[in-house]
Amino acid sequence: MKQVRGSSKLELAQYREVAAFAQFGSDLDAATQALPNRGARLTEVPKQPQYSPLPIEKQTVVIYAAVNGFCDRMPLDRISKYERAIPSSIDPELLKSLLDKGGFTNERKMEPDASLKESALPYL
């Protein structure tokens, strides 16, 4: 989970800083505007319905998708639906490997990218 999370803590801190700055009505360039957009999505990802949490291996894949930008162009109201669709698009062997090995191994790190891109298309 820690290796997948990557720089999300830093990105969330930058998001909060830029969001506070943007409240004063400042115009933001495109690169700076991307920070609040990504931060809003990273904030939305950990939310889960009460009494129905995702298993840890599925949470890992969902966080991997958010940190690697698969949710960046997605409207905020569709992220929870996308989160629920992700696990069914991932190879069950990969999910089992995540659970057994505690994260992505170097050789399996890029495996979910194609299926994550494909499963994100209906939610864009």
TrEMBL record:
Basic and acidic residues compositional bias: what residue ranges?
A: 106-116
Region Disordered, as annotated, extends over 105-124
What Gene3D superfamilies has UniProt attached to this entry? ATP synthase alpha/beta chain, C-terminal domain
Q: Main site of residence?
A: mitochondrion
Question: Can you say where in the cell this protein is located?
Answer: Mitochondrion
Q: What are the GO cellular component annotations?
A: mitochondrion; proton-transporting ATP synthase complex
Entry keywords, A to Z = ATP synthesis, ATP-binding, CF(1), Ion transport, Membrane, Nucleotide-binding, Transport
* The protein, known as: ATP synthase alpha subunit C-terminal domain-containing protein
